[in-house]
Amino acid sequence: MHADLSRLTFRPERHYSAVVAQQGRVQLDADANEQTAIQLHQSRTLTADLIGRYGGPRDAAGFRIEYVGGRHDIDTLYIHGGRYYVDGILVDADRPVPGAPVADEDAEDAEQDTAAPPWYWTYWDQPDAYRDPEKPGDRLPSPAGEPFVVYLNVWERSVNAAEDPALREVALGATMPDTAARVKVVWQVLPLSLTELAIEDADPSKEVVRAAFDKWAQRQAAATGRLAARSERPDHADEDPCLVRPDARYRGPENQLYRVEVHAGGEAKDATFKWSRENGSVVFAVDELDGTWVQLASLGHDDKLDLDVGDHVEFTDTAYASRLEALPLLRVEELDLPGRRVRLSAEPEPGVGRLPHLNPFLRRWDHHEGPRRKGRTAALKGGAVPVTEGEWLPLEDGVEVYFAKGGGYRTGDHWLIPARTATGGVEWPADPARRPLLQGPAGIARHLAPLALVKGEESAVDLRLAFGPLAGSIPAADAATLAAEEQARREELAAEDPSHGRSQTTVEAEAAVEGDN
User: Fold this and answer.
1) Which residues make beta-bridge pairs with 416?
2) Are strands 76-79 and 121-122 parallel, antiparallel or unpaired?
3) How far does CA 90 lie from the centroid of its chain?
4) Three-state SS for 209?
5) Are 95 and 78 in contact, with CB atoms under 8 Å apart?
């Protein structure tokens, strides 16, 4: 997540069940965040173990799909409300009920003629997918040509006050930084052709589609890009002033959480990455865009969290942040501090950041021109650093990263590298010989589930799974059952205590009377 964090410490392989606070100790964000991660891991693992990879409650299962085409200008889907679970994650498809405004007393007609939205979502207005009818790649396939599968893509992303102004406590004042960020469950209903599932049958069964989809989902969820990180004392360290230990490999003056994030995905020859020493958390809400000039709601709180000429920024909004599409990174060319304006190297992409309700913002990244290595300088591509596999790439202050050969990269995949002045190095897993270990990305984790197979006009085969409640009514006991239970209880007591609770004297007296008779 893009948030101002010290580090992320949750490791499921360590089997910690709780974080225990101790009196008189410094409390860190990492401890509280690990407790949240432990609870989420436990609850989602239990849910997935009970339900399976995906499923919904039988009487309230969400994401029922209807295909609607032909009589409309453009084909669409109806996405019905309810709940569904994918890999233990709760996904809610219910559409919020709009509030009722206070009637205008001066109006001649007190009745509000505003039409209420439908109680279902459509393919084009679903809240997190942001499909654009003007983009051919966003349109639904025609089922007349070939049936297609509709599936659910679920992932999580961080949200800060720049993206959701309601998170900011206005009582703290506009000059104060925001407080806690949020993590949002993003769901997107998307189409998938049978060809992509390697299904040749034009009329496959549910079982065939589900099996093929599961194989495809495993390939999509498995990230093949791997990275290692280390800190090496740079050659120019002797020229630096003694702000850090002379033998320190990490030469930065402050503790940092470096974020290396894939910008443009694909194979290594096409992929690029960007990096931030602040975990990508330096963002600026945008008030207005005028050509290449951007009016910001506020500037940074200090030089460390501000913008400067030469910085590379990502101009985006909540729609494109959810689409996970790489946009060109732009360079800050000029600053107008009194007017809270910055001039960018080019005008942002059309259709991005023009709608205020999508909360446009700038995100700062800290890379510059590609680092010089082996006698050459790698030029930026689209404002980002080209991925080079099989060699160590310097970031800054002795921090270096290594991409393993043969990797595949997806936009948004990222790695986190804590750098600490106390040790003069970075925190990264290593083998006994202290060689850095290659690691898969820390995110983004994608969770996929099939919803429907669309075969034609108003014909969608439901691929969802459902489960019933575990609880049931307690059956009423009849007289015969109660008598049998009482007899069984008496026999059990008699076996345990032949005297039935009487004293030894009473038992002997009764036995003597029976003998005289």
Assistant:
1) 259
2) antiparallel
3) 13
4) helix
5) no
Return the number of other C-beta atoms located less than 10 Å from residue 364's C-beta.
21
Q: Report the 3 state secondary structure along 282-329.
A: CEEEEEEEECCEEEECCCCCCHHHCCCCCCEEEEECHHHHHHCCCCCC
Secondary structure tally for the chain: helices H, strands E = 5, 29
* Non-local CB neighbours of 8 within 8 Å, separated by 6+ positions: 30, 33, 34, 37, 416, 442
Q: Give me the sheet containing 392-396, strands edge to edge.
A: 227-231, 399-403, 392-396
pLDDT of residue 22: 96
Give me the pLDDT at residue 40, please.
97
143: helix, coil or strand? coil
Checking if the pLDDT of 176 tops 80, the result is no
Q: Which residues pair with 389 in a beta bridge?
A: 403
pTM, entire model = 0.86
HEC assignment per residue over 438-453: CECCCECCCEEEEEEE
Q: Where are the beta strands (DSSP E) in 111-250?
A: 121-122, 148-159, 182-193, 227-231
pLDDT (0 to 100) of residue 369 = 77
Give 218-233 pLDDT, tens digit per residue.
998 877 899 999 998 8
Q: Which residues are registered as beta bridge partners of 260?
A: 275, 415
